[in-house]
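Shape matters. As here.
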Amino acid sequence: MFRNREEAGELLGEVLSKVIQDRENTVLLAIPRGGVPVAYHAAKKSGIPFSMVVAKKITFPHEPEAAIGAAAPDGSYILADRLSEDHPVVRQAIEKAVQEAREKLEKYLKGDEPDITGKTVVIIDDGIATGYTAVVAGMYARNKGAKRVILAVPVCPSDSIQRVGRYFDDVICYHKVDTLFFAVGAYYQDFHQVSDTELYDYLKRAEKEGLLYK
């Protein structure tokens, strides 16, 4: 169990220091908000700069906590296997998620996205369960010109690695869970909801320390 996202990021950064050869052409992209403290501490440990990539879970109106997929600002999306994009309710849910992803992009990056053309991009979050959000973030990075896309997370269920692996050039998971996986937060002592204030504080600190990729 990790003490908090800070410890998880430091441990993940140690791994990245060993496996990423060309750090000068590599960028960490955090999925806000929970991925930002992880990416900041991973960047500090590895010396690889970070920025953000946004994605939004796709949910039904009556089940806002149950993800059926995820969408990116450019309209990219992934759905659970059992669902059809042709169903009007599903289509509406996709469109809503895409719009919300665009709003998040404007909110956090003010429309000023980092240029990742030809870069190795490492998508970072505080963990994955279904992996939908991480997958669509990776799809978005490829669409933006990334040369290689890697997923790196502190914790995930083993079966998710197999499921999401085909979307990435590599998957790095510090702690693979082979038993029943309940939720990412179950593997942290402190898993508080990261506020916008905390997120912006990490970005300010990163900019001062030369860790923010622009």
